[in-house]
Specification:
It is a single chain. This protein is α/β, with parallel strands linked by helices and about 400 residues long. The protein is built from twelve helices and eight strands. An eight-stranded parallel beta sheet has the order 2-1-3-8-7-4-5-6, sandwiched between helices. The protein is globular, with a radius of gyration of 20 Å. Pfam families: Hist_deacetyl (PF00850).
Length: about 400
């Protein structure tokens, strides 16, 4: 019987671990799943284990020499000097044991999610272990070894002949996915991110629109530092609605980085939990309207793993299950279980404290600049005489 939604997870996904002090920490998946279980929002029947991606599947995107180098590095056969040519052994993406197997497991989790949806076993699918959007064809980057979203999109094209709309709301530009499909007219990428003037990877400009036959299928919305909820959500909903109507995809893949929140230590945006309630709600609504409900969601960034990520990512699952958004206190049982381990006091409610931060004196200026970005990026489709 078809399930309304499935949650891809096994402890094998936790093997993707650079070090105890590295900001990319997969414990956030454990915290999120435990919160959902404590809320009685998920059952064991909802959980589907991931499989490991095969070499053939990885090579849909990644270069053979790169995959070979990742395998050797995970066995201790490559030093950081040689590895750094391939983006591994760097400060951002250190080498760790079994790097290939752990990375391939995250890719396989997203492919599992794809098959569950496209083979009509589930309406929606969530793989929080995925979302490694900085991985390039021949190089790791920004905490990302293999790029599960890029592999999944090629897999969707090869096995299901699908037109794919990729939506990225991580605070960092979804560069790896964009460049992989920059000249592909059947893949449309939309990224909302903090401007590269301040933040890694420094790309994602409005003028990056695609190339050749793919020109016009790349949309970037580089928002200003200190952007707040209202401006973020205006861009997200307006862009998503206009682009999905124009592009008419068969399936929607969303990358759900949770690092646009005020508490995130690596970014400079001023989002609150309100954006994380709305992002998946709108994704589900538009997937239902334009793609017969085919929606696959992956994780991504999110570096305040205690106060932000579990609450933010739980909202994706609540949207997929069509459950009312949770409000009020978090379960005392969950708070008691994790507070002793957390280096910061946990937020005790689903909502953020109010006020979360002091008023931004440049709010009007920031909102105006973001509105200009929205208009510039959407000008291409708004000025077209014929629909796509």
């Amino acid at each position: 019987m078809k399930k309304d939604a499935i949650f891809v997870f096994s402890e094998d996904q936790l093997g993707y671990s650079f070090s105890d002090t590295h900001p990319f920490n997969q414990k956030r998946i454990v915290l999120t799943l435990d919160l959902l279980k404590t809320m009685h929002a998920i059952t064991e029947e909802d959980i589907v284990p991931p499989r490991m991606a095969t070499d053939e599947e990885l090579l849909l995107v990644h270069e053979p020499k790169f995959v070979e180098m990742v395998k050797k590095a995970g066995k201790g056969e490559v030093g950081s000097e040689i590895g750094s040519v391939y983006g591994i052994g760097t400060e951002d993406t250190p080498i760790f044991p079994n790097m290939h197997e752990a990375s391939a497991m995250l890719v396989g989790g997203t492919l599992t999610a794809v098959d569950e949806v496209m083979q009509n076993r589930a309406g929606y699918a969530l793989n929080l272990g995925g979302g490694l959007h900085h991985g390039f064809q021949g190089k790791a980057s920004g905490f990302c070894v293999y790029n599960d979203s890029s592999v999944a999109i090629r897999y969707l094209q090869k096995n299901y002949h699908a037109r794919v709309l990729y939506i990225d709301t991580d605070a960092h530009h979804g560069d790896g996915v964009q460049w992989t499909f920059y000249d592909d007219p059947d893949v449309c990428t939309l990224s909302i991110h903090e401007t590269g003037r301040y933040l890694f990877p420094g790309t994602g400009h409005v003028t990056e629109r695609g190339n050749g036959k793919g020109y016009g299928t790349s949309f970037n919305f580089p928002i200003d530092a200190f952007t707040e909820d209202e401006s973020f959500l205006t861009i997200y909903e307006t862009a998503f609605r206009e682009i999905v109507e124009w592009f008419k995809p068969d399936v929607i893949l969303t990358q759900n980085g949770a690092d646009a929140h005020f508490f995130d230590p690596l970014t400079h945006l001023y989002g609150t939990m309100e954006i994380y309630k709305e992002i998946p709600r709108i994704a589900r609504e538009l997937a239902d309207e334009y793609c017969e409900g085919r929606w696959i969601a992956v994780g991504g960034g999110g570096y305040d793993i205690w106060r932000v990520v579990p609450r933010a990512w739980s909202h994706i699952w609540y949207s997929m299950k069509n459950l009312p958004a949770p409000t009020g206190p978090l379960p005392k049982e969950w708070l008691d279980r994790w507070q002793s381990e957390s280096p910061v006091p946990l937020i005790e409610t689903w909502e953020d404290p109010n006020p979360l931060y002091k008023p931004i004196p440049r709010k009007a200026e920031i909102d105006e600049k973001n509105a200009h970005v929205l208009d510039r990026s959407l000008h291409y489709i708004r000025s077209e005489q014929q629909p796509r």
